[in-house]
Amino acid sequence: MAKSTAPATQSKHRRWVWALWSALAGIVSAAAFLAVAELVALLVAPESSPILAVGSFVIDIVPQPIKEFAIATFGEADKVVLLCSLGLAVTIAAAIGGILQFFARPFGLVVIAVAGALSTAAVVTRAGASVLAAAPPVLGTLVGCAVLVLLITRLRVWSGEVVAGSTSRIESPDAETPAAGQVGRRSFLIATGAVGLAAVVVGIGSRMLNATSASIDAARRELRLPEPRTTVTIPNGAELDVDGLSPLITPNSDFYRVDTALTVPAVDPSTWRLVIDGMVRERVELSFDDLVEMGLDEYSITLTCVSNEVGGGLVGSAIWQGVPIRDILKMAGTQAGADMVLSRSVDGYTASTPLESLTDDGLDAIFAVAMNGEPLPLEHGFPVRMVVPGLYGYVSATKWVTELKVTTFDADEAYWTPRGYAAQAPIKFASRVDTPRTGKSVAAGTVPIAGVAWAQTVGIDRVEVRIDDGDWQSATLSNPINSDTWVQWMMPWEATAGTHYVEVRAINKNGETQIEERAPIAPDGSSGWQRVLVTVTA
Ligand SMILES: Nc1nc2c(c(=O)[nH]1)N[C@H]1C(S)=C(S)[C@@H](COP(=O)(O)O)O[C@H]1N2
Ligand SMILES: [Mo]
């Protein structure tokens, strides 16, 4: 900054000090912006961190000669130089924003808004960005603006107190009232310090977590699994062709996700270990390679959440690749008296599974490493999770699994047991209407009613539909893959104008009818026949 030659040294000096404080406020606001963006990125879209997106954007738009110059000059450090320059540019812009907000309100907010718009553009134009990718920079911008207003308001109060005969608009604070400014000063410094500290802690913490999950993402992309020894054959007629009907196999991107993890655990397959201990003859410890070298087989299994309401979407089918859990329990040798396996995840989550559900030769309980032809997605338990046909997920499908403790229901309790859910929870078999949907109207004529039905380990024998409390009619079923996978069903309906109830129920291969009585999800899963109100237009 140029040395002042003006006679009013005192006044220039004060202006200079306010400029420095407002620059600091601007920098703290930018830090809050980036910290919030990193935190939101961590929760919704780990690869949409604005600072990195802007960096990649700069790399993409910089002309080739400049890139070559940068590589020639800085070599391996070119990325570091880029990020440091970007950091410096952000700091300078933030300082200017703070100064503008103090001396020329609201132009500081304009600076943040422009930075927000640019980083949002950089994030959403990245290849493969989801809609959620805009959330980090947008929320960051809002918080950055709020912090700037908060801090500059306090700074104005302070400067107002300092200026003798202060007016509410402080353009050039130039004289001091003795001992004035203590209150405003305190409140400005405390707010700036607190927000600054929080931004640094949250920002660095989130960035580090983002970086690990990005590196695990890379490890997952590079992972090459051995070909499975056996594959699932999808029989002819396994999939019905009806608009609005759930696909037979749920794509990974549409698969429901339920877990207690605030951020998706990032587990490195090269350091992952599975330990089998507790009531065993011999403690067993396996690496990821040990596990997959036992040989992978394919299994088609429908997973269901205990929190699935009648007609709900917390159910999905996938083709998993994995290793039978019983084979690994055999290596450890379970002791007499054990009746439960407490599986534990890296994040501390635990599930209690009856021992016999894991050892029974007729049940395909597996450690899964792949889902629909690719390594498990991070949010579905990468690198290894459990899948047990016939049991709700919370008592069986532990993701990011690292330990099986062979024990008893008397001695141990899983995560959800003291929280109002049953220690043992076989899936209540059920059926669901996918189309037509409640509240949607359809035109009179032939309307296909269709949906899915599941009775893992037993199989669906029949699905029945009735209209307006009429007679139950049998629906057409898709050709089942196996008894662990849901089937699709459909029934053409001659719909007449008006409103109608469509109701569905399933009958399993043991001849049992789906429970009619409504039950809430706690403690061991919902029940009841789904009833859909359909409006038919003439
Ligand atoms: N580590 C861990 N595993 C978990 C859970 C969890 O909270 N933490 N939730 C379970 C529940 S309740 C269900 S329904 C299934 C859901 O698996 P998905 O998210 O792959 O669909 O995971 C199970 N495995
Ligand atoms: Mo669940």
Automatic annotation (TrEMBL):
InterPro entries for this protein: Ig_E-set, OxRdtase_Mopterin-bd_dom, OxRdtase_Mopterin-bd_sf
Key words of the record: Membrane, Transmembrane, Transmembrane helix
Boundaries of every Oxidoreductase molybdopterin-binding domain copy: 262-413
Superkingdom classification of source: Bacteria
An annotated GO BP: sulfur compound metabolic process
Residue stretches spanning the membrane: 20-45, 80-100, 107-125, 131-152, 188-209
GO molecular function: heme binding; molybdopterin cofactor binding; sulfite oxidase activity
Record's protein name: Molybdopterin-dependent oxidoreductase
Originating organism: Leucobacter tardus
